[in-house]
Amino acid sequence: MIDDSRTRPTPVRLSPPPLSRKRYPVHKWRTPLILTVVTCIVVLGGWWGWRAFMHPEANVPPCVSQSASQLSTSQVQLRVINAGTVRGRANEVAGIMRAQGFVIASTGNASPSPSSQATPAPGVTVPVTIVGTSTEDPEVQLVAGFFPGAAVTADGRPDHRVDVIVSDTSAMPLQSAERTVPIPNGVICLPAGAASTGN
Asked: What's the per-residue H, E or C state across 105-161?
């Protein structure tokens, strides 16, 4: 009897080829990704800051309507802005207006215009500029009474605050002006957080 095990070929077991592990260098894409994220943050932050600077009223809550027969200085919020070159001018005017009962929301400096930098003729004063929601609003008229000859303008702001823009030669506020004005239609819109008016 013949032993077939000697003549039968030994089966060969084929193992699958090893899987190739392709390594992707992390450092090649990590830096561009970080730069992209940082660039997006800087661009968005710059856009938000520019929008807030150019349109500050967009970040201010609207006014609150109230019924009243007259408006007093204690219900009016002012922002006093120095558009001249004399330091401390806005704080000086704000102190006088605060003594008259006005609420000083803020003081600050504006970029001086060519007209404010020019030296006026002797005895000539540059009028104060008053900016409000409307030139006919009671709060604007009340503030204008403290600055005879002031230039009154309107920009439709929603909060009904009043800006007082002074220059180097602007006259100081009158301390004998009326502290109340009547409200023709009996309704006044005050900045959020302002004290309620009396009847």
From this structure: EEEEECCCCHHHHCCCCCCCCCCCEEEECCCCCHHHHHHHCCCCCCEEEECCCCCCC
